[in-house]
Write a structure and sequence with these properties.
single chain, 418 residues, alpha+beta, Heat Shock Protein 90, 3 domains, five-stranded mixed beta sheet, 61% helix, elongated, EC 2.7.13.3, HATPase_C_sf, phosphoprotein, membrane, phosphorelay sensor kinase activity
Length: 418
């Protein structure tokens, strides 16, 4: 009984109006307008019926009619509290009209107006409360009607207590089902949104980890060169003082420690089932091979590679290759058969490496095309943005008026911090 009482006294969302989350203000007002129309229709009719058909005093009839209908306005935002008020008023009205002489042949214990108002109330309760609360409300409704029927005897036609019990159950069942279905759809949308956000976050972390593993080789190469130069300096340079020899030895020792820490970091970044890559990291010198592989896959590609690129930092060299690789892979996936142009050149001030990958609209082709180089990241624009951000460059992407797509990246030829 304690749990039963708690169910009937604890609303699910107190104070939240029906359709309160709708964007349009007119839609949010619809429940209030309907409730006001229902109250305005039932209130005067109830007063007149109580006075003329049941011989109730005018003042008492007004109070009862107000208590039975006015809470329907409150039901828009607080349906469970409104139900308590309406149920008490309906039971009180049945007790007031129990006089068998004055009310002979009239519907009892519920009047037709009570049935209509109660069903409207059940509509709001069913759209808001949980299943356990709906069952409890329905059982209390039936128990009150049958108890009054047993105490007063069946004097009126129609057995409205049974009609109200059945109809209220049907309304609660339908509205409760609709509410649960709506809640399930909202939870599904929320889960899809969360899953999409988590998927994007996981993709970003995986791409950053991959970039970190690739840059390990670049940094390790420089550290190895520093170690060798510092170790060999006393033998290559004559006349070094003892302090200089100690300084070179300290530099070599620090470089070795840094290499050791980097290898430990790489072990953390590498997953359990991932083996170390033994092939050299690709660069701009392999873009030609990448384009040729793309052409063999059936994608018409035109390459424009400037001959005066000069020395390119290793991080930029690797990032440029990966950007071109990912852009071509995206063309194969999303615009098979489209004519594509790849261009790598220096900016006029010789400070930037300009990468341009432009493709036209997808060509109609019946032959399926396979992705170019399965070793690609597969993370599309996310990977490009991370690599550009790493080197301190910029990236512009977007569709073209002819249905194609453009990827334009600018990477500094002197590596900067982002």
């Amino acid at each position: 009984m304690r749990a039963f009482g708690a169910t009937l006294s604890t609303p699910t969302e107190p104070g939240t109006p029906l359709l309160g989350q709708a964007e349009s203000s007119w839609v949010r007002r619809i429940p209030y307008v309907l409730a006001l129309i229902l109250v305005a229709s039932l209130l005067p009719v109830t007063v007149m019926v109580l006075i003329n058909d049941y011989g109730v005093n005018g003042g008492i009839a007004g109070l009862l009619a107000t208590a039975q209908t006015a809470p329907l306005l409150m039901a828009v935002s607080r349906p469970l509290q409104a139900w308590w008020v309406v149920l008490a008023a309906d039971v009180l009205g049945a007790l007031v009209t129990i006089n068998p002489v004055l009310a002979a042949g009239r519907p009892w214990p519920w009047t037709p107006m009570v049935v209509v108002g109660y069903l409207g109330l059940m509509l709001t309760v069913g759209l808001r409360e949980q299943r356990r609360t709906l069952v409890s409300v329905w059982l209390v409704t039936g128990a009150a009607g049958f108890a009054l029927e047993l105490s007063g005897g069946s004097r009126g036609p129609g057995n409205l207590h049974l009609v109200l019990f059945v109809l209220s159950g049907v309304v609660l069942l339908i509205t409760g089902t609709l509410r649960e279905r709506g809640d399930a759809q909202r939870r599904l949308v929320e889960q899809e949104t969360i899953s999409e956000a988590e998927r994007a976050r996981r993709t970003l972390l995986e791409e950053r980890t991959r970039i970190a593993r690739e840059l390990h080789d670049v940094v390790a190469h420089h550290m190895s060169v520093i170690t060798v130069q510092a170790d060999s300096a006393p033998y290559r340079i004559e006349g070094l003082s003892e302090a200089a020899r100690k300084e070179f030895s300290s530099i070599a020792s620090s470089a070795r420690e840094s290499l050791t820490e980097m290898r430990r970091l790489l072990m953390v970044l590498r997953s359990e089932n991932t083996e170390g890559e033994r092939a050299p990291q690709p660069g701009i010198d392999r873009v030609q091979q990448l384009v040729e592989a793309t052409i063999r896959a059936g994608l018409p590609v035109q390459l424009s590679l400037a001959a005066d690129l000069g020395p390119v930092p290793q991080a930029v060299d690797l990032s440029a290759y990966r950007i071109v690789q990912e852009a071509l892979a995206n063309v194969v996936r999303h615009a098979p058969g489209a004519r594509t142009r790849v261009s790598l050149s220096r900016s006029p001030n010789l400070q930037w490496l300009i990468i341009l990958v432009v493709n036209g609209a997808p060509a109609e082709s019946t032959s399926p095309m396979s992705p170019v180089e399965t070793s690609g990241t597969g993370h599309g624009l996310i990977g490009m943005r991370e690599r550009v951000r790493l080197t301190g460059g910029s990236l512009d992407t977007g569709p073209l008026p002819d249905g194609g797509f453009c990827v334009a990246a600018r990477l500094p030829l002197t590596v900067r911090l982002p």
